Amino acid sequence: MTLSYATQARIAGLSYLVVALTGAFNLLIVPAEIIGADAATTFANAQAQAQLFRLGITAGIVCQIFFVITPVLLYVLLAPLGRIAALLMLGFALVSVPISFANISEHMAILQLATGEGAANTIAAIAQHTDAYNRGASLVGIFWGLWLAPLGWLIAKSGTIPRILGIFLILGCIGYVTHFFLSFFAPGYEATPIADYIHTPSAIGELGTCLWFLILGAKDKRPT
């Protein structure tokens, strides 16, 4: 049985929403509670809130599973508007997944060390894993940005999805890539107000897109 465009849109929107919610929990909420300014603080927080850390890691795994599913669903919906752009969107998104899983493994190692299940229960080892996670998170941010550019372009030209969402997604791509290079080349950038707001366009564009597909976009009107 072939699913209608409206049903495909709902499924894509729901999958994207799962990515957004689990990603926010894994990348923002849990690290704010666990990862401290130094390895000793991280060690103490991970010991005291091990169950929260486990939930965050689980959310990260779920997020990455759905981040494989979501771009595929969006490709099916948007490929008629531009197959090359849709392939770029899909490719950039999928490249980020193994990097993200490697990052998750660093948090798993920190949890094992903090709960005494690791091979070496040391503050130095936790510092090494935290640094590796931060490097991976910086690198994967490039691909989290790059996939938004073709997605935004496809949405902007769809004629059925609000063009403003596509513009926000393209600005989100610029924000992610700019954030990486400023972090890499401009010491102290992370402490500036720009760093606090540079991902705002991507947050607006991504959340708006997933909600449009899930709620307002559930109409049997395929873009051509």
From TrEMBL:
Keyword Amino-acid biosynthesis listed: no
Keyword annotations from UniProtKB, A to Z: Membrane, Transmembrane, Transmembrane helix
TM helices/strands, residue ranges: 12-32, 52-77, 84-104, 137-156, 163-186, 198-218
Entry-linked Pfam families: DUF4386
Keyword Transmembrane recorded: yes
Protein name: DUF4386 domain-containing protein
Species whose genome carries this gene: Terricaulis silvestris
